[in-house]
Amino acid sequence: MGNKAKILIVDDEDIVRESLRDWLESVGYKVDIAGSGQEALQKIESKSFKIMLTDLIMPGMDGIELMKKAKKIVPTLSSVIITAHATVQTAITAMREGAHDYIEKPFCPEKVELLIKNLMEHQELIEENISLRRQIDERFQFEGIIAKSPGMLKIIELIKTVAPTNATVLITGNTGTGKEVIARALHQQSPRHSNPFIITCCAALPESLLETELFGHEKGSFTGAVEKKKGKFEAADKGTFFLDEIGEINANTQVHLLRALEEKKITRVGGNQEIDVDVRLIAATNKDLKTLIRQEKFREDLYYRLNVVTIHVPPLMERREDILPLADFFLRKYSEENNRTIKKFSPEVIKFMLNYSWPGNVRELENMIERSVILSKGSILNLDELPQDIVHPTPEEEKTVEVIMKNHIFSVLKETGGNITKAAKILGIQRMTLYNKLKKYNYTVNNIDA
């Protein structure tokens, strides 16, 4: 049988393993045999098996110990325990340790054949999922970015171009679109990838603490400063510093941040010594910084320092081609983390995901799938297992989603100069659907020019 063997039979009794081999070969399976656990492990290391049938009680190494060791060599191997000591406890122990099933001696050949048939189908499903995962990883994944839409593929190309440089990057986009993932990809593709990637969310800290968080402080510089502390700029030296929600920083911190970018030097709070820092800065915001400049809430000179290269991450409703690849990725991730065996979405769930507006973007999609996987009981995720506040929102929630959708449509129309065809293409909907929505919104040119 050589390397083409797919089934391994392990039993210390010659007549058992040979008769079982003869039967399975007569119905078309490729079979190899071993008389002990040690012999079985040697064959598993050198040959390719999908299924192992092993005796429970054998000299030296019993079936359960063999099964555990074999799993470490071939994680996808399906194991069946053969036992003449069939008790409920034996079956429970074997299944708890990872056996897919057990059969009793003397066994019925037809029953064994049916069991093998079912396990082969299970193996095909495993291989199909591995293949799907590989396809998703190869076709849609780049440094943690799951992308199929033209807009996101352009962003990936931009990352590849910009990452090798030291240019400061400003990432814009709505909350939940994945700005941090973009920042990580820039770092991983840069020459700095083996050095620190440091993150600070400017909105998560009060103004009084943000400056010491960024630049550090000297001992005694303020009440509670009982020892010297290095800031995040120093921690990120030779690496990348990601400042999220940059639009939240106050005027004083903006001045010090601008100096750090221009001179590549920082001074700790309460200190006088200038400290050289070699940091590649990436900033992100969900706000319109130009509007903040007009309102005199953000420095124009800092904006131009940050805005050397801009990457705008579109909302999920603008890149509907990414929804299913993202959903598949999250389904696999949370099924594995929560020991679930959910393999796919029902057609109703797929339809819902493609039609839903996703005001919370990728973060909302991930959260929905994580919640649903935890509560799901079958191998297919069904519509009634999704959070019902999303599937059936309250009138108030529906109104909020509708307002978001309306504003987004008007924004896209403004970008396209009122071109309905281009807008429909960007929105991922049919022209007639867009016409109907515009009629519902009493659309006029003034709506988007305001």
What does this molecule look like?
With 450 residues, the chain is α/β, with parallel strands linked by helices. The protein has 4 domains: 2-137, Response regulator (Rossmann fold), CATH 3.40.50; 149-312, P-loop containing nucleotide triphosphate hydrolases (Rossmann fold, 3-Layer(aba) Sandwich), CATH 3.40.50.300; 316-391, Helicase, Ruva Protein, domain 3 (Orthogonal Bundle); 395-449, Arc Repressor Mutant, subunit A, CATH 1.10.10. Helix content is 50%, strand content 14%. The protein contains 20 helices and 18 strands. It has helices at residues 14-26, 37-46, 63-73, 88-96, 109-140, 150-162, 179-188, 207-215, 232-235, 251-263, 289-294, 300-306, 323-337, 347-355, 361-375, 388-391, 395-415, 420-427, 431-440, 445-449; strands spanning 7-10, 31-34, 51-55, 78-83, 101-104, 141-142, 145-146, 169-172, 197-201, 216-217, 229-230, 240-244, 265-267, 274-276, 280-285, 309-312, 344-345, 380-381. The strands form 6 sheets. Strands 2-1-3-4-5 form a 5-stranded parallel β-sheet, sandwiched between helices. Helix 13 packs across helix 15 and helix 18 (420-427) crosses helix 19. The longest helix is centred in the first third of the chain and has 32 residues, at 109-140. The chain is extended, with a radius of gyration of 30 Å. The model is unreliable at 445-450 (pLDDT under 50).
Distance between the amino and carboxyl termini: 76 Å
CATH topology of the largest domain: Rossmann fold
Silhouette = extended
Biggest sheet details: 5 strands, parallel
Strand neighbour order, sheet with most strands: 2-1-3-4-5
Domains (count): 4
